[in-house]
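Subject: design request, 173 residues
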């Protein structure tokens, strides 16, 4: 897979299929990007399980924090990595020990590790690198356009509302 550019349909397919997300590197500090991404994803109806060994047993936004992926009480569809690129191989090692395996490993903006991505893909896991699910969701749902940002996605179609939430769903082609 070419990880330099992603087709909107690939990202939309992921965001529409994922329900439960483990966020590795989640922070309780409300000015950290992981905090507001976690808050945003919760508001969009995703179940997010924070992973941070320094805060294990505490809560972030009402969600129990776990020390590592192996401690999660339920399977996850996606692992969102908010760690430096050098930490990615270790996280992928942890992911590959999970049963069942998640569908997706997502690396945040500035995070990329091609060898670890290849190992994950060889195990059947989709990979996204150097992207933010909050930004991609906002772009593909049309929300980001409300602030005057050119998302590159134009549609005259009426927005689709997700049931139970006051938010737009991600439109697939």
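Subject: RE: design request

Done. Sequence follows.
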């Amino acid at each position: 897979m070419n990880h330099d550019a992603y087709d909107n349909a690939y990202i939309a397919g992921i965001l529409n299929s994922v329900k439960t997300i483990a966020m590795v590197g989640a922070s309780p500090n409300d000015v950290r990007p992981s905090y507001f991404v976690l808050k945003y994803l919760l508001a969009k109806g995703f179940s997010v399980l924070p992973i941070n060994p320094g805060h294990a047993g505490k809560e972030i936004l009402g969600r129990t924090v776990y020390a590592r992926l192996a401690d999660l009480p339920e399977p996850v569809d996606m692992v969102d990595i908010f760690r430096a690129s050098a930490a990615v191989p270790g996280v992928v090692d942890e992911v590959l020990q999970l049963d069942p395996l998640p569908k997706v490993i997502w690396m945040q903006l500035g995070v990329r590790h091609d060898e670890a991505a290849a190992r994950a893909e060889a195990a059947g896991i989709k990979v996204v690198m150097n992207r933010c699910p909050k930004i991609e969701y906002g772009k593909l749902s049309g929300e980001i356009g409300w602030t005057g940002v050119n998302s590159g996605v134009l549609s005259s179609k009426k927005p689709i509302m997700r049931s139970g939430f006051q938010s737009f769903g991600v439109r697939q082609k």
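The CA atoms of residues 85 and 113 lie 6 Å apart.
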